[in-house]
Amino acid sequence: MSERPIKILQFGEGNFLRAFADYFIDIANEAGVFNGNVQIVKAIKAGDLAPLLAQNCEYTVLLRGIRNGAQYVEKRKITAIAGATDAYADYEEYATLIQNPDLQFIISNTTEAGIVYDETDRRALTPPNSFPGKLTKLLFERYVYFNGDRDKGLIILPVELIEQNGEKLRSCCMKLAALWGLSDDFTAWLTECNIFCNTLVDRIVTGYPKEEAAALEQELGYRDKMLVAGEPFALWVIAHEKIAEVAEKFPLDKTDLPVIFTQDLTPYRERKVRILNGAHTSGVLAAYLAGVNTVGEMMNDAVMRPFIERAIFDELSPCVPLPADEVKAFARSVIERFENPFIQHNLLSIALNSVSKFKVRVLPTILETQAKTGTLPQLLCFSFAALAQFYCTGERDGKAYDLKDDSAVLAFFAKNKALSAQELTSTLLKREDFWGQNLTQISGLESLVAQHLDDIRTHDMRDAVKALVQ
Q1: Beta strands, E only, 210-357
Q2: Is the overall model pTM greater than 0.90, yes or no?
Q3: Residue of 27, 185, 285, 401 with fewest CB within 10 Å of its CB?
Q4: What are the phi and psi torsion angles at 311 (to 5°)?
Q5: Tell me: the pLDDT tens digits for 117-155?
């Protein structure tokens, strides 16, 4: 490990941050574009830093998958973490971290539930209960310690998987500052001298490969209890109106790392939701009823693979508001991610809450295509019918599978599953509480979905898909 200034305070020591943010920082250090280390903070009572500290905060990231059509394996020893502190067990040490004059960034991954305003939180607690509470108190103490120096503000990079994560975190901090009666001068410093970025992150991280531990120890030549495995694909989009300042201080894009600095991450979120998530939601229910169990099997299936590829390239991609070459490259990366032989992603786990997922991930593309072209995307409309069949059937090869969704969704299909294809489609599309509108008013949609559902019921799912893609 090289001696570098500690520029980053990182809330969270979990697998994702270690295989994503710390991996990025390690590469930027090696490339000579950053020169900064990370200080980890364990910000919840649960968990144990001892295994990480026992290895001097060094560990291996193992990335495996498909890249540019070939199998890819990367093993990187991470040496960018200077230390780790428990905010509860070592509060006094934790409280001094904010006094570091070299500090420039705070990175967090406190789960989606971590960025919430807790009106019961108190500044007097050591530390406050919520992550926004901890952050607000630390920023106030930094403001006091440096006498309000406007150059001592920080760049905040939350990677929690919620939309507008930076803005929501900033809002929580502002509310807590008001709740705690902190000065107007501090509030001005908080808003004017600190940059709360919105971010979008993407990488599948599977964690410690327990079943392969012995073989990997032989291969690596050392034992690493903190080894973390994931896929090669990654994406970090960082957005703010002052993005030039952020990019200058955090120049990860000066390497080959997949980092995008922008003032608006909306099109990149749209790309991920419509292509990656949309492909999952449009394909997995049909694939499961066609006898497939995992995403990898789906991509090796002679019937389902053409369906997925055509859905991605012909129907989902054209509606993404980014340059065509960027969209096609992302679409190709999605195919390679689905092919990854090292990740077993069960279709039934993806099927959770499929109705609400379909509304967000697939339905907008159906509606936009119809509005722009006057035609409906055949494969996506077929996936609508497959969704109805999946919820109505509830079994495969004589064995029941668990249907997991909101109670209103499950009650609807339990009540209406015996209806004809036409009746069920009409009743389903009229559910404005499911879709946000009455979809029978969309020209041609009801008849097309009903036709596909009738085909599925008349034949079986595999034959129906095969007839569609031939």
Answers
A1: 228-230, 235-239, 259-262
A2: yes
A3: 185
A4: -60, -45
A5: 999 999 999 999 999 999 999 999 999 999 999 999 999
